[in-house]
Amino acid sequence: MPLMSHSRNIISRRLAPLSSAGAWPDSVTIRRAAPSDEAALAKLAALDSHPTLSGAVLVAEVQGEIWAAAEIDGAWVLADPFRPSGELALMVAQRAGELRMAAARKARSDRRKARAAAKAKAAIAA
């Protein structure tokens, strides 16, 4: 390939504006899915060639559209393959993992408190 055509390609890439579909979003909202999100989640699952997610789900929403989703109690993650949503899928999956760990810590704490209360009650009864 001649040098001139290569440099022409570089210049044309610099001057070409980014398409709105390929640009990283300005703001993202990560939230729990609501019942009204079922249709959007079904569409996302179909785009990602995956069955719909079950149970509690977190979504990454950009300008009112869901780009990625993850099960809170499971391991499945969905992302829109036609948008730059890979990093959003990772963010949603990480947040879902954090919520799982927080729930597990709370459950352990509740069990410890219940055992301590049972011991205290047994000590008083004795």
Rg (C-alpha, Å)? 24 Å
Unreliable runs, pLDDT <50, ≥5 residues? 1-19
Mean pLDDT: 83
Number of helices: 3
Overall CATH architecture:
3-Layer(aba) Sandwich
| Count of individual domains | 1
Q: Give the strand line-up of the largest sheet.
A: 1-2-3-4
Could you tell me the CATH topology label. Answer: Aminopeptidase
Q: Helical proportion?
A: 40-55%
Which CATH first-tier class would you pick? Answer: Alpha Beta
The shape, in one word, is elongated
* Termini Cα gap: 92 Å
Main beta sheet strand tally, sense and closure: 4 strands, antiparallel
Order of helices and strands: HEHEEEH
- Estimate what percentage of residues fall within beta strands: 15-25%
Total strand count, please?
Answer: 4
Describe this structure in words.
This protein is α+β, with helices and mostly antiparallel strands and 126 residues long. The protein has three helices and four strands. It has a four-stranded antiparallel beta sheet with strand order 1-2-3-4, sandwiched between helices. The N terminus is likely disordered.
